[in-house]
Amino acid sequence: MASNAISRRKRNVYALLKASLVVRATWRLAKCLDKLRSQVNELWPLRIKASDGTIGDAAHQGRESDHNPWVIDGDVGVITAMDITHDPKHGCDAERIVDAVLQSKDARIKYIIWNRRIVNSEVSPWIWRPYAGKDPHTTHFHLSVSAQKPLYDDDGPWSISSE
Ligand SMILES: [Zn+2]
Questions:
Q1: What are the distances in angstroms from CA 130 to CA 3, 113, 124, 145, 160?
Q2: pLDDT in tens, 36-56
Q3: What pTM was computed for the model?
Q4: Distance (Å) from CA 82 to ligand 1 centroid
Q5: What is the rounded distance in angstroms from the CA atom of residue 154 to the CA atom of residue 158?
Q6: Shortest CA distance to 68 belongs to which of 119, 76, 87, 57?
Q7: What spacing in Å lies between the alpha carbon of 6 and ligand 1's midpoint?
C-alpha cells in the first residue's frame, strides 16, 4: 500500500513537471509591445530589423531578462521586453523614438536602455543614468514594460510619429 502511494505521488510529480514544460514552451509577446512594433513598421516600412528581438536568445537566457517569458498569464509565458533596431537612415531613429515615449511618461514603461544609458519609471523616475552593461545598446534600444497585465496588454497607441 505504501509503495502504491509513492508511485501515485511520483506520477503526480511527473504530471506537474510535464505541465510546467508545456508552460515554458508556450509564449507570446505583451500586446503593448506588439502594438509598438506595428506602429514602428508602419511608420518606417523600409527599416532594418537586424537588432530587433523579443524572446531571449541564448545570450539573454540564464540572465535576468524580461526577454524571458517569466510573466505568466494563464498557461502562457509573456515576453515583456523588446529590442528595436536603430536605423536612422530609414527614419527609425532610436533617439527620437525613445525621447517621444519618455516625454509621454507612458505608464506601460518599466525601463529603457539606449546608447549607454538607462531610464526607469520607478527607480530615479524618468532620469537617465549611465548604463555599463556588456552590450552598450547602440544598435538598438531596449524597452521593458510593466509586469501588470492591464498595462502590458494595453494595446493603445504609443506617442510616436514620423515627424
Ligand atoms: Zn533587450
A1: 59, 9, 12, 20, 24
A2: 999 999 999 999 999 999 887
A3: 0.82
A4: 6
A5: 10
A6: 57
A7: 45
